[in-house]
Write a structure and sequence with these properties.
By secondary structure, the protein is α+β, with helices and mostly antiparallel strands. The chain is about 20% helix and about 35% strand. Strands 1, 2, 3, 5, 6, 8, 9, 10, 11 and 12 form a 10-stranded antiparallel sheet that branches. A two-stranded antiparallel sheet has the order 4-7. The termini are far apart.
Protein backbone atom coordinates (compact mmCIF):
# COMPACT_ATOMS: atom_id res chain seq x y z
CA UNK A 1 0.00 0.00 0.00
CA UNK A 2 2.72 2.45 0.99
CA UNK A 3 4.59 1.61 -2.19
CA UNK A 4 1.53 2.56 -4.23
CA UNK A 5 1.05 5.81 -2.29
CA UNK A 6 4.71 6.71 -2.80
CA UNK A 7 4.61 5.80 -6.51
CA UNK A 8 1.54 7.88 -7.30
CA UNK A 9 2.75 10.69 -5.05
CA UNK A 10 5.88 10.97 -7.16
CA UNK A 11 3.75 10.97 -10.32
CA UNK A 12 1.64 13.81 -8.94
CA UNK A 13 4.75 15.88 -8.17
CA UNK A 14 6.19 15.15 -11.62
CA UNK A 15 2.88 16.15 -13.20
CA UNK A 16 2.65 19.44 -11.29
CA UNK A 17 6.16 20.60 -12.23
CA UNK A 18 5.66 19.14 -15.70
CA UNK A 19 3.02 21.78 -16.43
CA UNK A 20 5.89 24.25 -16.62
CA UNK A 21 8.14 22.07 -18.75
CA UNK A 22 10.27 20.75 -15.86
CA UNK A 23 11.20 17.10 -16.54
CA UNK A 24 12.22 14.83 -13.68
CA UNK A 25 12.21 11.66 -15.76
CA UNK A 26 15.12 9.44 -16.74
CA UNK A 27 16.13 9.70 -20.40
CA UNK A 28 18.24 7.27 -22.45
CA UNK A 29 21.80 8.50 -22.89
CA UNK A 30 23.04 9.50 -26.32
CA UNK A 31 25.96 11.19 -28.05
CA UNK A 32 25.50 14.05 -30.50
CA UNK A 33 27.72 13.20 -33.47
CA UNK A 34 26.65 15.85 -36.01
CA UNK A 35 24.43 18.88 -36.49
CA UNK A 36 22.74 20.16 -39.63
CA UNK A 37 22.48 23.89 -39.13
CA UNK A 38 20.56 24.86 -35.99
CA UNK A 39 17.55 22.64 -36.71
CA UNK A 40 18.65 19.01 -36.92
CA UNK A 41 20.74 16.93 -34.53
CA UNK A 42 22.28 13.53 -35.31
CA UNK A 43 22.46 11.31 -32.22
CA UNK A 44 23.99 7.94 -31.48
CA UNK A 45 22.04 5.82 -28.98
CA UNK A 46 23.24 2.60 -27.39
CA UNK A 47 21.01 -0.47 -26.95
CA UNK A 48 17.85 0.23 -24.95
CA UNK A 49 15.08 -1.82 -23.40
CA UNK A 50 11.48 -0.82 -24.04
CA UNK A 51 7.91 -1.85 -23.39
CA UNK A 52 6.07 -1.79 -26.71
CA UNK A 53 2.47 -1.90 -27.91
CA UNK A 54 1.31 -2.25 -31.52
CA UNK A 55 -2.36 -1.71 -32.29
CA UNK A 56 -4.33 -1.78 -35.56
CA UNK A 57 -5.74 1.66 -34.86
CA UNK A 58 -4.66 5.09 -35.98
CA UNK A 59 -5.13 8.62 -34.75
CA UNK A 60 -5.73 9.89 -31.25
CA UNK A 61 -7.83 6.88 -30.25
CA UNK A 62 -5.04 4.46 -31.11
CA UNK A 63 -2.39 6.54 -29.34
CA UNK A 64 -4.58 6.88 -26.26
CA UNK A 65 -5.22 3.13 -26.04
CA UNK A 66 -1.54 2.32 -26.51
CA UNK A 67 -0.55 4.82 -23.81
CA UNK A 68 -3.07 3.39 -21.35
CA UNK A 69 -1.76 -0.14 -21.89
CA UNK A 70 1.84 0.94 -21.35
CA UNK A 71 1.02 3.06 -18.33
CA UNK A 72 -0.89 0.16 -16.78
CA UNK A 73 2.22 -1.98 -17.27
CA UNK A 74 4.58 0.41 -15.48
CA UNK A 75 1.97 1.09 -12.77
CA UNK A 76 1.83 -2.57 -11.75
CA UNK A 77 0.15 -4.70 -14.42
CA UNK A 78 3.22 -6.92 -14.48
CA UNK A 79 4.85 -9.91 -12.85
CA UNK A 80 8.35 -10.14 -11.42
CA UNK A 81 10.52 -13.22 -10.98
CA UNK A 82 9.42 -13.31 -7.34
CA UNK A 83 5.77 -13.63 -8.44
CA UNK A 84 5.09 -10.09 -7.27
CA UNK A 85 4.69 -6.91 -9.24
CA UNK A 86 6.80 -3.82 -9.67
CA UNK A 87 5.95 -0.17 -10.20
CA UNK A 88 8.31 1.25 -12.78
CA UNK A 89 9.33 4.90 -12.96
CA UNK A 90 8.10 6.86 -15.94
CA UNK A 91 10.82 7.79 -18.44
CA UNK A 92 11.06 9.97 -21.53
CA UNK A 93 10.72 10.11 -24.42
CA UNK A 94 7.60 8.23 -25.42
CA UNK A 95 8.24 6.94 -28.93
CA UNK A 96 5.23 6.97 -31.27
CA UNK A 97 4.99 5.51 -34.76
CA UNK A 98 1.61 5.99 -36.36
CA UNK A 99 0.64 5.61 -39.94
CA UNK A 100 -2.63 5.82 -41.83
CA UNK A 101 -3.49 4.72 -45.34
CA UNK A 102 -3.34 7.61 -47.78
CA UNK A 103 -5.60 8.12 -50.78
CA UNK A 104 -5.18 10.51 -53.68
CA UNK A 105 -4.95 13.43 -53.44
CA UNK A 106 -4.92 14.21 -49.74
CA UNK A 107 -7.67 12.27 -48.04
CA UNK A 108 -6.57 10.32 -44.97
CA UNK A 109 -8.19 7.05 -43.97
CA UNK A 110 -8.11 6.06 -40.31
CA UNK A 111 -9.33 2.52 -41.03
CA UNK A 112 -6.15 0.82 -42.18
CA UNK A 113 -3.75 2.57 -39.86
CA UNK A 114 -1.65 1.38 -36.96
CA UNK A 115 0.14 2.79 -33.97
CA UNK A 116 3.32 1.54 -32.31
CA UNK A 117 4.26 3.13 -29.00
CA UNK A 118 7.26 2.51 -26.76
CA UNK A 119 8.12 3.39 -23.18
CA UNK A 120 11.86 3.04 -22.56
CA UNK A 121 12.56 1.23 -19.31
CA UNK A 122 14.93 2.67 -16.68
CA UNK A 123 18.57 1.71 -17.25
CA UNK A 124 18.59 -0.43 -14.10
CA UNK A 125 16.53 -3.10 -15.88
CA UNK A 126 17.88 -5.83 -18.15
CA UNK A 127 15.93 -8.23 -20.33
CA UNK A 128 16.18 -10.76 -17.50
CA UNK A 129 15.06 -8.43 -14.71
CA UNK A 130 12.32 -6.43 -16.46
CA UNK A 131 8.87 -7.34 -15.06
CA UNK A 132 6.77 -9.44 -17.46
CA UNK A 133 3.62 -7.70 -18.75
CA UNK A 134 0.26 -9.12 -17.69
CA UNK A 135 -1.40 -7.97 -20.92
CA UNK A 136 -0.03 -9.87 -23.92
CA UNK A 137 -0.39 -6.78 -26.09
CA UNK A 138 2.54 -5.30 -24.17
CA UNK A 139 5.88 -6.71 -25.29
CA UNK A 140 9.37 -6.17 -23.88
CA UNK A 141 11.77 -5.47 -26.74
CA UNK A 142 15.50 -4.81 -26.94
CA UNK A 143 16.29 -1.86 -29.18
CA UNK A 144 19.70 -2.11 -30.85
CA UNK A 145 22.11 0.79 -30.89
CA UNK A 146 21.19 3.19 -33.68
CA UNK A 147 21.85 6.60 -35.18
CA UNK A 148 18.85 8.93 -35.17
CA UNK A 149 18.23 12.33 -36.74
CA UNK A 150 15.89 14.60 -34.80
CA UNK A 151 14.20 17.93 -35.37
CA UNK A 152 13.04 19.51 -32.13
CA UNK A 153 9.89 21.63 -31.84
CA UNK A 154 7.35 22.80 -29.28
CA UNK A 155 3.58 23.06 -29.38
CA UNK A 156 0.71 20.62 -29.08
CA UNK A 157 2.14 18.18 -31.60
CA UNK A 158 -0.78 18.19 -34.02
CA UNK A 159 1.66 19.20 -36.76
CA UNK A 160 3.75 16.03 -36.34
CA UNK A 161 3.37 15.05 -40.01
CA UNK A 162 4.61 18.44 -41.21
CA UNK A 163 7.54 18.30 -38.78
CA UNK A 164 8.49 14.83 -39.99
CA UNK A 165 8.38 16.13 -43.57
CA UNK A 166 10.61 19.05 -42.57
CA UNK A 167 13.12 16.61 -41.06
CA UNK A 168 13.16 14.53 -44.24
CA UNK A 169 13.68 17.69 -46.33
CA UNK A 170 16.55 18.84 -44.10
CA UNK A 171 18.29 15.48 -44.49
CA UNK A 172 18.01 15.45 -48.30
CA UNK A 173 21.08 17.63 -49.07
CA UNK A 174 23.11 16.18 -46.19
CA UNK A 175 25.31 13.06 -46.03
CA UNK A 176 22.68 11.40 -43.81
CA UNK A 177 19.88 9.37 -45.32
CA UNK A 178 16.79 7.92 -43.60
CA UNK A 179 16.61 4.14 -43.28
CA UNK A 180 13.04 3.97 -42.04
CA UNK A 181 9.83 5.94 -41.69
CA UNK A 182 9.94 9.06 -39.51
CA UNK A 183 8.23 9.00 -36.13
CA UNK A 184 7.65 11.19 -33.08
CA UNK A 185 9.33 11.48 -29.67
CA UNK A 186 7.26 13.13 -26.93
CA UNK A 187 8.83 14.37 -23.70
CA UNK A 188 5.91 16.05 -21.95
CA UNK A 189 2.36 15.35 -20.82
CA UNK A 190 -0.60 16.86 -22.71
CA UNK A 191 -1.18 19.37 -19.89
CA UNK A 192 2.31 20.91 -20.21
CA UNK A 193 2.06 24.47 -21.49
CA UNK A 194 2.31 24.09 -25.29
CA UNK A 195 5.15 26.58 -25.76
CA UNK A 196 7.21 24.67 -23.16
CA UNK A 197 6.69 21.22 -24.62
CA UNK A 198 9.55 19.27 -26.11
CA UNK A 199 8.64 17.22 -29.16
CA UNK A 200 10.98 15.72 -31.74
CA UNK A 201 10.48 14.45 -35.26
CA UNK A 202 12.88 11.53 -35.58
CA UNK A 203 14.19 9.03 -38.12
CA UNK A 204 16.86 6.34 -38.06
CA UNK A 205 19.66 7.34 -40.44
CA UNK A 206 22.93 6.13 -41.88
CA UNK A 207 25.77 8.07 -43.47
CA UNK A 208 25.91 7.80 -47.23
CA UNK A 209 29.11 6.17 -48.56
Amino acid sequence: MWQAISYYGVLVIESIVGVFGVRLYEEPRYEVIDRLGDRVEIRRYGPRLAAQVELPAAGEAGRSEAFQLLFAYIAGANRTAAAGRDRIAMTVPVEVHDKVAMTVPVQTSQVNGFVRMRFFLPAKFSRETAPAPVDQRVQIVTMPGETIAILRYSGGGNDRVQRQAALTAALAPSPWRPVGEPYTLNYDAPFTLPFLRRNEAAAAVERAP
